[in-house]
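User:
Care to share a sequence and structure tokens?

Assistant:
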Amino acid sequence: MQKQQSRAAAGIADIGPETHRESNGSATPAAPQPPRKWARVLRAFIDGKTLNRFDAYRELRDSCLNTTVSQIEGRGVTILRQDETVSGHFGPVHCCRYWIAPGSLQRARELLGLPTRVPQLQGCPATHWRQPHEP
């Protein structure tokens, strides 16, 4: 009886005399989780995208890009920004355009578990970085 109580305390379900499985409170296996929001935004930056708050909502369903950028920066990645004005339904809207600093690419790839060295094609640079254009 004590053995069963210690198994229960350890989170192991008793299925039979010699068969045990970890119990997570559910009979069904855990479904794979989609990438977290900061990881989706960081991946977009690694892929060379520049985003403002409207792009982020439309493409990634991120409704608070400034907070997500802050979370990414807290993980050691430098995000660059530039003020811009975009047209809105009721007139111009002032916002920021964000993109990753080229020097932070390696750290960003490490955070997402991606290879840190990108193979170069002969005669082509591994990445092509451009500054966002002026509005």
Q: What stands out?
A: Strands lie at 12-14, 20-22, 79-88, 91-100. Residues 10-21, 124-129 have pLDDT under 50 and may be disordered.
